[in-house]
Amino acid sequence: MWALLAPVGALALIMVIALWPQGNYDRFALDGAMDTTGGASMQVGTVTRSLIQDCPSSMGLEEVGGKTLECNVTYLMPDSGGAEIALEIPPEQLHSREARPGDQIRYLDLSAVGSDSGSPYVFVDFVRTLPMSLLAVAYGLVVVLVAGWRGARAVIGLVGGIAFMIIFMVPALLEGGNPVLIALTGSTAIMFVALYFAHGLNAKTSTALLGTLFGLAVTAGLAVWLTDAAALTGANDEHAMTLSTVVPQISLPGLLICGLLVGGMGVLNDVTITQSATVWELAETAPHATARELFFKGMRIGRDHIASTVYTIAFAYAGAALPILAIAALSDQSFGTTLSSGSMAEEVIRILIGSIGLVLAIPVTTAIAVVVVKATGTGGAHGKASVSSGRRAKLSANDSQN
């Protein structure tokens, strides 16, 4: 197994060094687009009260219909100090969730440069740092309490993997590097470190890693082909359009391929480590089972895993795409037209590619696990059972002779 994995790991390390970003991109390219230069600044304030009164944006403008426009005006106390300010939050935001006293809001302060709208303050977003931080802490505690030290290692590996993506993969993409090479290199490096760190340096983990690498290769091949064959541009949302404007060297279709591989990496890791552990458990409970029996028993469990995981992937994307489905229901377009257009087509292809890689990785992982188990034993109960069985057989033979 190491004869297969060691060259792949060494190649991944060499590619990480070769593709390591040099910082040759404008890290502050969006500052001008966000109007945070030239005297304007991004500020945070705490909501104190909300009132229905004259809209700040209509101050100084001509009256409409013989009366001044009224709206919900939110008052904030700036965290940086100073007097209370009046902020007009877009009605579509307030329709979903009103601003309550104690909420923190991020806004753009244009008072130093002037504003043509009559109000020098522009709503940007709610500040969600505290609830998200509490949720992250709760997640870590639950994982550690239930899974113990292995869960703690998994959380640490997750944090390390995300940090590696931010430090290596994202800057390398922004510099215009080859997205497929970056995605394969980054995903392989993350899987090597995360799997061995969380599950230990053993044959079971190596089996899962081989299955994961196979699934990544299949996913990469399908992603490269389908991106061109289905004419996927990757330019179907405001974030992609912003990137294409401020970072013209980045490839949006390549970015889409990279996203497909990163998204598939986590699902593949899940199914391969579970399938590998399944074969080891089956071998320990039935140490004299043949390779054929182990494979088909493992695949019976694997088929259930395939079904449940495919449902998980599909429904996860369907839930994220509910607004698009709702818009389609209000138009005269057919369901097929909706699925094959724009960002919806990208999500459908993402589901199908990820599912194919997942389905193919399970029999491959199962087969590798069976070969390894039959060649080396499980290293645990299997080995002990074999020794005990041999001793029992020898004692029985001696008894019969006596």
Automatic annotation (TrEMBL):
<keyword id="KW-1133">Transmembrane helix</keyword>
<feature type="transmembrane region" description="Helical">
    <location>
        <begin position="309"/>
        <end position="331"/>
    </location>
</feature>
<feature type="transmembrane region" description="Helical">
    <location>
        <begin position="126"/>
        <end position="147"/>
    </location>
</feature>
<keyword id="KW-0812">Transmembrane</keyword>
<feature type="transmembrane region" description="Helical">
    <location>
        <begin position="246"/>
        <end position="268"/>
    </location>
</feature>
<keyword id="KW-0472">Membrane</keyword>
<feature type="transmembrane region" description="Helical">
    <location>
        <begin position="351"/>
        <end position="373"/>
    </location>
</feature>
<dbReference type="InterPro" id="IPR012507">
    <property type="entry name" value="YibE_F"/>
</dbReference>
<protein>
    <recommendedName>
        <fullName>YibE/F family protein</fullName>
    </recommendedName>
</protein>
<feature type="transmembrane region" description="Helical">
    <location>
        <begin position="180"/>
        <end position="198"/>
    </location>
</feature>
<dbReference type="Pfam" id="PF07907">
    <property type="entry name" value="YibE_F"/>
</dbReference>
<feature type="transmembrane region" description="Helical">
    <location>
        <begin position="207"/>
        <end position="226"/>
    </location>
</feature>
<feature type="transmembrane region" description="Helical">
    <location>
        <begin position="154"/>
        <end position="174"/>
    </location>
</feature>
